[in-house]
Each structure stands twice: as structure tokens, then as C-alpha cells.
Amino acid sequence: MVTKERQISVPALIKPAVPLVPSIRRLLANRPYRWYLLMNIPLTLCALLPSNLMAYYVKAVLQQENAVATTTIVSGIFLFAALLSITPIVWFANRYGRSRVLCCIMFQYGIACTCVCFLPAEFMLSFPAFFYFLMFCIGVGTVAAFVLVDPMLNDIVDYDELISGERNEAMFTVVETNLQQLVEIVGGVLPLLAMQALGYQANGGCACGCGVDCMKEVGMPYARWHCPNDIGYSCMGTMTSKLIFGDLTRAAPCTRQNDAVQLVIRVFIGGVPAIFAFLMIIPAWKINITATHHRAILKEIQLRAEDPDRICIDPLTGLQVILPTNSPQDLFKEHYSTWERRMATRAQDVLGKLKQIIGGQLFISFLVGVAILVGCSVSNDVNVATFGSFAMAIVFLIVPWNIVRLRLLVRSKPSDVPKFLAEDDTPASVASAQEGLGIGRPAFEQPTQ
């Protein structure tokens, strides 16, 4: 079977571009895409947290002196799980649907993460085969996030083309990438901040040991570790050489962390991913664009390309597709939310009121940004600076959004404001964007072609 890219129709290339704000609003009005975003946020954290924190779990919770070796084995199991499971995942997805297969895989992923969170370290060390089996299950769940999710997004892009009349891969990429980066920042930074706040010490507070050469650090070639209250003397100074003094079976102090730090590691490597894995099953099940639906979507798009006047049927709802008109009045409406337009229509000067509303939001955004910068400058706390940077990233998204909308108002005249600005019961693009695209008259009321 040869796979080739579907050709883009010529009329789609010569259509005038829809402005940025209406384009984003239409994407977010796409119901399957909203479910996709609600699914992808926890799924991103599920794929991120275990791999990021595995080294901390092996060293601080399992208290393995040679944590690098164990972590390498776990990484190899992740890779083996990916190579072994890709083909079965694709086969099951083609047979039973991507959403159902993803839900089943993430359910077992959640159970595995729950075991990692609650099972004591002694149990894991006593049954290493079971520990590696859990790592294999987590690896399968991680690879499913890449194998199944992107094809689901491709189906949603095709569905969006049907209900909006536009091909918007680039806009989908922009929205998803920005949201995913924000989620990855939180998932990557928050566990480390929590560990630091609860007293995490690098290498257990030891000068050397657990992979750090004592000869290079403190000039002691015959020590496995050098800690404030314990020095592990041995003949060779390597991790495999036997201790000479003290309890010969004692754990290396460089692996020790307090109970609070260990609890945080358990929660973020197992508890949080388990909760998110179970939660993302709901939106994943809601998407459910099956192969039959997708074939019907592509068929409707092709029929409309052959006959631009055709009224298409939404395969997911069975209703007629009402395309946005892209008229100047409707595009003006789509720049502003329903509550903003309704509040503006209560004033005599509608345009001026809209300027006040959008300008007020922009002013508040600037104030919040200044407050964040001042707070980070005054405080010497690293945690404050980290959370401030994350908040500024959100502000940097809000400010351009409101600048674009305010610029449209500044360039507009009172006559450019649509007469029925607050109405949503019209089959215009703004009604479709606010209430959900693709909702129209039932299919049985479709006019005869």
C-alpha cells in the first residue's frame, strides 16, 4: 500500500486568509478538538513525569547506590516496550478504533503508576521482575501517547476542514505547541521545586559517592562515599568493592533523602500520572472519530470540492454543515466573545464600549506583568522567580491577543460595527464559532440537490 498526501484543492489556495483571532476561536469551537486538548494535557504529563523523575526514584526511594545502572536498564525497558508494542497498538487501533485502544492502554498505565506510587521500596527490591514489568507497562503507555494521539489529531483536522471550509494545519500546530510547552514547563519544574522546598539535598549531602569519584572530589582513593557522618572505606573505592568498617550491608548515605522528599517523588512519578491517566480516558472516549466517520468526512469534503454549492452533512451529528460566511461583519463579531459583545450593546456608543472592555483587559495584563517583574526583582527566592517566569509566559500570550483585537477597534468606524452585534441565533460564522461549528438543520430537512 502506497501512502501519499491528499492534494489541496485550488479554491482553498486562493481564498483570503481568515484573521488570527477568528481562526483560533473557530479551532476552539471544534468540539472534538476541545476534547483533544483536554486529553492531551494530562497525556503530556503522563509521558513526561515518569521519565523525568525515574533517576530520583531509583536513587532516593529504592536507594540504589549505582542508580545510573538501574536507570539505564529502565530506559532500555522503555525502549524495548516501544519497539515491541508499536505494531500491536497499530493493529488494535485499526480494528477497534484509536480512542478505545488508547483508553485501554492508559487504564493499565494508571494501574502500573498506582503500584509505583504505593508499593514500598522493600517490595520492589524483593521482586525486581515485578518492578521491571511495571516499567514495561509504563513504557507501553508512553509510546501510545505518540503512536495514537497524532493520528487522532489528523482526523480532527479533516473534520475541521469539513465544518469550517478551511484547511488549518498550521493553526492547529500553533495552538497545540504553545499549550504543550506550558504544560511541559509545569510538569518539568513543579516536582523539582516541591523537592527543593521539602529539603532535597544533592547526592544526599555527601561530597562524593554514588557515582561521584572520591579521589577527584576529596582526594580519597579508598572511599566509596564521603558524607558528613559516614565515610565508606573500601580497598578499591569503587561501588562494587566491599566496605571495611561499620555495617558492611548499610545503604550508601548519598542515596538518602528525608521522608517528605521521598513522598513527593512517589506522588509525582506514580500518583499524579495515575490520576491523569484515568482522567484522560473521558475526553479520549468522547473524541471517537472512527474509521467509518473519517471516510465519510473525506467523502463530504470531496463532494463539496466538486460542487461548491453542496450542503454537506456532518457524519458525527447527522446535521447540516453551516459554513462561516467570512463577511466583514461576521469576522468583526468573531474577534470578541459573547459576553463582551453583549456588554457593549448595552451602551449607546457600542464601539467606544468595546474599546473600554478590551483596553481594560490589556491594561490589567500590563499591570499583572509589571507586578510579576517587580515581585521577581524584589524576591531572592528561586521558586518565586520560576513561578513568575511561568506567569509571564501566560501574560505574553494574553497581551498580543488583546492588542490585535484593540487595533481592529481603533481602525474601525461606528458604521463598521454589525447591527446585531450581540445576537447568536444567526447562521453566521460567529454563531458557529461560539455555539459549535457543524450545527445546523437536521439532515432530513436538507433541500433537494
Automatic annotation (TrEMBL):
Gene3D superfamilies: MFS general substrate transporter like domains. The keyword Transmembrane helix applies. The chain crosses the membrane at residues 35-55, 67-93, 99-119, 131-149, 263-285, 362-380, 386-404. GO terms for molecular function: symporter activity. GO terms for cellular component: plasma membrane. InterPro entries: MFS_2 (IPR039672), MFS_trans_sf (IPR036259). Keywords: Membrane, Transmembrane, Transmembrane helix. It holds the Pfam family MFS_2. It comes from the Eukaryota. One of its GO terms (biological process) is carbohydrate transport. Belongs to the major facilitator superfamily. PANTHER family: MAJOR FACILITATOR SUPERFAMILY (MFS) PROFILE DOMAIN-CONTAINING PROTEIN, MAJOR FACILITATOR SUPERFAMILY DOMAIN-CONTAINING PROTEIN. This is Uncharacterized protein. It comes from Polarella glacialis (Dinoflagellate).
